[in-house]
Amino acid sequence: MSLAHSPAAFTIRPAGPPDLPAWLALRMAFWPEDSEAAHREQMADILGDADQAALLLFQDGGRLCGFAEVTIHPRAIGCETHRVGYLEGWFVEEGLRRCGHGRRLVEEAERWAASRGAREMASDTQLDNGISRAAHARLGYEEVQALVHFRKRLRSD
Ligand SMILES: CC(C)(COP(=O)(O)OP(=O)(O)OC[C@H]1O[C@@H](n2cnc3c(N)ncnc32)[C@H](O)[C@@H]1OP(=O)(O)O)[C@@H](O)C(=O)NCCC(=O)NCCS
């Protein structure tokens, strides 16, 4: 690992309003299917809700290069408790992967959830996201169920 990639050169802290432009850019890279307006609405929700947080990873205290978004859910599939910490999003910039940053982000998300009364964490990913499934497993997450989601538009008349 080069010095530039060593954990000491990186910090993690919760997002605040000044982070919006950089956080938006990273979110749009991770969830390109959502519109900018939808991202802005979701980010405003996170900043305005004590049961949601975005933990941001900065290189040398300045450049945003990853995030973990975490919320508190009243329940989650496979979990036995209420107020479950839920990993909603988890992203590390491509060139910085496999250096331990993803693990630090999740550990920070777990600390945040525990500090709000959660005793379990839950998460989800696409079935074909093998990297995410492997990384979740390495961080101690067990696979509990695979789901297919459906939708149907209702007539308005
Ligand atoms: C998933 C992701 C955030 C992991 O970030 P990262 O910085 O590479 O994670 P780390 O280096 O801390 O690795 C965490 C663990 O996962 C394992 N891991 C990471 N990438 C892996 C891969 N490609 N294959 C197998 N295991 C992997 C690591 O070995 C590590 O376990 P260890 O500490 O016991 O060795 C990153 O790959 C990413 O941003 N992917 C694209 C977005 C995405 O799919 N997010 C998850 C959707 S829920």
Estimated helix fraction: 25-40%
Calculate the mean pLDDT score and round it.
95
Low-confidence segments, ≥5 residues, pLDDT <50?
none
Rounded to an integer in angstroms, the radius of gyration calculated over CA atoms is 16 Å
Number of domains: 1
> What is the element string, with H for helices and E for strands?
EHHEEEHEH
CATH architecture: 3-Layer(aba) Sandwich
The main pleated sheet reads as: 5 strands, mixed
Would you count the extended β strands for me? 5
Category from helices, strands and their pairing:
alpha+beta
- CATH class, named Alpha Beta
List of distinct ligands in this structure: coenzyme A
The fraction of residues in strands falls at: 15-25%
Quote the distance from N terminus to C terminus. 61 Å
**Morphology:** globular
Strand order, largest beta sheet: 1-2-3-4-5
Number of helices: 4
The CATH topology? Aminopeptidase
